[in-house]
Amino acid sequence: QVQLVESGGGLVQAGGSLRLSCVASRSILWLNAMGWYRQAPGKQRELVAVIGSDGSTNHADSVKGRFTISRDNAKNSIYLQMNSLKPEDTAVYYCNAKREYGVGGQLNYWGQGTQVTVSV
User: Fold this and answer.
1) Chain-centre distance of CA 54, in angstroms?
2) Among 32, 41, 59, 72, which has the highest number of CB atoms less than 10 A from its own CB?
């Protein structure tokens, strides 16, 4: 089991920046991957960025060049640096962690979410 706690959301004007943080209750080296998802009102939850235990990253096309995911194993944390924010980035952002087991088994853990609102 692992608990995830996000922070860093808020209200920002278009073009501004925010940095989201997610702290895990145990070593993130125990996890296979961590990432950020977001869900806007009336829309499905979508992947924003993911980082593997080896530090490899993948970002959604909609945020490439603007958002950067990173991790700090010593602090059991991952981060999402968001620059050049747009109104369409407005959503609740969720931290996710994945733990694989057995053959094809996967556990998913979620944080409670943090609101990001980008005004025009």
Assistant:
1) 17
2) 59
Task: Note whether 71 and 51 are within 8 A (CB).
Answer: yes
d(CA 38, CA 29): 24
SS3 30: helix
Among 39, 44, 27, 48, which residue's Cα sits nearest to residue 99? 27
Is pLDDT above 90 for 56? yes
Rounded mean pLDDT of the chain? 96
Which pLDDT band holds residue 33 (cuts at 50, 70, 90)?
very high
What gap in Å lies between CA 66 and CA 63, rounded to an integer? 5
How many angstroms separate the CA atoms of 41 and 80, rounded?
21
Amino acid at 83: N
**Per-residue b/e over 85-119, b at no fewer than 16 CB within 10 Å?**
beeebbbbbbbbbbeeeeeeeeeebebebbebebe
